[in-house]
Specification:
By secondary structure, the protein is an all-alpha fold. It has 21 helices and 2 strands. It folds into 3 domains: 60 residues, lambda repressor-like DNA-binding domains (434 Repressor (Amino-terminal Domain), Orthogonal Bundle), CATH 1.10.260.40; 236 residues, Alpha Horseshoe (Serine Threonine Protein Phosphatase 5, Tetratricopeptide repeat), CATH 1.25.40.10; 82 residues, Alpha Horseshoe (Serine Threonine Protein Phosphatase 5, Tetratricopeptide repeat), CATH 1.25.40. It has a two-stranded antiparallel sheet. Helix 11 runs parallel beside helix 13 and helix 18 crosses helix 20.
């Protein structure tokens, strides 16, 4: 397995190719020269907002800095190519209309695999399933909302796989297909899920203002169109505010972060136990995880560590691996910021245990592994294992 170049290495190469010194690039990105130097040599992690700032300064997409798509154990080119072909043929499914009970069961299986962060297993079934649900919807009577809701939900699963395995162009194409399917459903909740993923594409690209605009538009549209069903309304609006928390905190907008957090908490009062709905997880537990992540983005790792302490001691069993894995990655980042290297390694180890395919490919998990590996590779054997699994070492 070839070593995957780290973001710091990619930044140095791109900077030099553009004839930029560290001082000039640091000034353009709004960071210190010292920080940029440490990023390039691998002793500090580069965070998503800094990646966005550096990418803008060098006029490259964020994926160029991350080196995405990653080469490594979670990379399955043939499976992704099959998915790409199925997504491209979105109005021309080759599959026949299946037995309704079987296709419903398969959709539930796909959504469960997404929640379990088992992206490779999900990829094996998505191309055929996309064709089947689309064939079903195209053959259904006009206004048949249920069939098109299944199409939108399966595209939501496909987005998760493409996004997590770092194929941003495929994720962008999938989001447009999900929005197309959601528009056929007359189901405001399906449109919320599509808007959530659309905002996610802007988040991945570091375009936080645009992502927030998508969220605000979706909130306004949902409030106008939706009924008064309290649980569904709380889950939909609360989920949109969770995405708003991430976008606002990465944009360093403290007031917008606080506003979205307050509204998410309000809606979470109606959902004491987290619920999975149209591939979105919402409730009091998940809201706490987003608050934890926001404190990290806003430069308060000590507050994040404080929130994390009870979660590490008693992990919330009602959350799926996709959310638990992300929680441990965020905790690892907070502890690294506080120079608690042993604690960061412990959190990463838990992320690899609960959601290995996520941990192998997640940019922040890879950054924390990279920094710890540079600092402690000889002293900590587990780091070598994690570095190999992420493709950062041979």
């Amino acid at each position: 397995m070839d070593n995957t170049p780290a973001p710091g290495e990619n930044i140095a190469v791109l900077r030099k190719a553009r004839g930029l010194g560290q001082a000039g690039l640091a000034r353009a990105a709004g960071i210190s020269v010292s920080y940029l130097s440490k990023i390039e040599i691998g002793t500090r992690p580069v965070t998503p907002p800094v990646v966005a700032a550096l990418a803008k300064a060098m006029r490259v997409p964020t994926q160029r800095i991350y080196g995405q798509p990653f080469l490594g154990p979670s990379e399955q080119a043939a499976l992704l190519d099959d998915l790409r072909r199925a997504v491209r043929r979105y109005t021309l499914p080759r599959e026949d209309v299946p037995d309704p009970a079987q296709v419903s069961a398969d959709v539930r299986t796909a959504m469960e695999l997404r929640a379990q962060a088992k992206y490779l297993e999900l990829l094996t079934m998505l191309p055929k399933l996309l064709g089947q649900v689309t064939a079903t919807a195209l053959s259904s009577a006009p206004g048949e909302a249920g069939a098109w809701t299944q199409v939108a939900d399966v595209y939501g699963c496909a987005y998760a796989a493409a996004h997590r395995l770092a194929h941003s162009d495929l994720a962008d194409m999938i989001v447009s297909r999900q929005a197309w399917a959601a528009q056929q459903t007359w189901n405001p909740e399906a449109e919320v899920a599509a808007a959530w993923n659309e905002a996610g594409t802007y988040q991945s690209a570091g375009q936080y203002d645009d992502g927030l605009a998508i969220i605000e538009r979706a909130i306004s549209k949902y409030e106008t169109a939706a009924g008064q069903d309290a649980p569904h309304r709380a889950m939909s609006l609360g989920s949109l505010h969770l995405r708003g928390i991430v976008l606002a905190s990465r944009n360093k907008d403290k007031q917008a972060t606080a506003d979205h957090l307050a509204k998410a908490r309000y809606h979470a009062t109606n959902i004491p136990k987290d619920v999975l709905w149209h591939n979105l997880t919402f409730g009091q537990g998940n809201t706490a995880l987003y608050e934890l992540a926001a404190h990290i983005e806003l430069g308060k790792p000590d507050r994040a560590a404080e929130i994390a302490s009870p979660l590490v001691e008693t992990p919330p069993t009602f959350l799926m691996p996709s959310r638990l894995g992300r929680m441990y990655i965020d905790i690892a980042r907070a502890r690294l910021d506080m120079k608690d290297h042993e604690g960061a390694e412990e959190a990463l180890d838990r992320a690899f245990a609960v959601a290995p395919q996520m941990a192998e490919a997640h940019p922040m998990a890879r950054e924390v592994v990279r920094v710890l590996f540079v600092l402690h590779q000889r002293a900590r054997p587990k780091l070598m294992t994690m570095a190999k699994r992420t493709g950062l070492a041979t």
